Input
Amino acid sequence: MALNGNEAVAWAVKQSNVDVVSAYPITPQTIIVERISEFVNNGEMDAEFIHVESEHSALSAAWGAALAGARAFTATSAQGLALMWEVLYITAATRAPVVMAVVNRALSAPINIHNDHSDTMGARDSGWIQIYSEDAQEAYDNTIMAFKIAEQALFPVMVTLDGFTISHTLQNVIVLPDEVVSDFVGVRKIPRIKLPRIHGEKEIPLMLNPKYPITFGPLDLYDYYFEHKVQQNEAMKETFPVIERVHKEYGEISGRSYEPVFMIPYRTEDADVVIFGLSSTMSVVRKVVDELRAEGKRVGAIRFRVFRPFPADVIRKELSKFHAVGILDRCISFGGEGGPLFTEVRSALYGLSSRPIVHNYIYGLGGRDLPRKLIVKIFDELLSAREEPESPVVKYVGVRE
Output
């Protein structure tokens, strides 16, 4: 089926037994909620479609619906995600399994509607699982898997796709039959808990229910707040096997395997150097790898898929065998020593007795292309790198001086 990335996400939502969709359009995400509204209006999708007046309300509505036991979805981009900021943390801390598509777009100012990753990288510490898609097919697949991951892990999930590059370009997307997706995601199962001081030994559903009243997100000062935040962090680390298990199960029904789940290597078996990065850019990097391999250069690529939870152990194991690694960041950490992906990967590698040289390349802000010749230049620099720099090497690729 010929679908752009936004339509692919909408189809995944349509097939996933979603109960509530809250919608506030923002470029380049608008097509997602437009298509879903058409599905609901045409009777092709049985869901409550809630029009709201802002992105803050969009996520608030999805959060409330999820706490009431519904399977809930929303979508946004850039400033919309920024306007959700308060509720991002609340959704994660109350373990509400909302799924949200974020069509990556540069943050203002100046106003820019095109792609970079400053929006979702800014939300990296909000407690959401983040899965980055390379193309429309993966955006479809990731969205379906996200519902199952969210509900089994009890964490909200962001599925990201590059604005316009993926969201507005047509691709032949293989869409599964409705019943296959419906059976895979099933009907949301609400966990049951005990609250002895309120409800005795009786198990009650972990949801808003007037029959068994409970409170989400009450006052929590210095006496317990710290412990609860540590528990939240530890719980997120326990989502690794959930993410892997759901990917394996999805591979069995779809025939499409995303393995290794957290990062996908390309021609790295005998590579001396690799470029490590996210999303649609890595398809171009792979083509350059093929060209340079034909010239006898031992280069490879690794596409990173799951940024949160951060798979530090996997990164250490995978990257420690190379001579040099170039980290692509489509985001600036203002005042920092490199982009967010670079600083976290380099930190993960720092404790190794034998670690690769790691350079940071910031590129593509506001939708600027990363052409082939610049990727070749990055590989040439990595191949000639001879020692770890005393301070992080951060270069801006494709910026005019």
Remarks:
- The chain has a mean pLDDT of 97.
- The chain is about 40% helix and 20% strand.
- The radius of gyration is 21 Å.
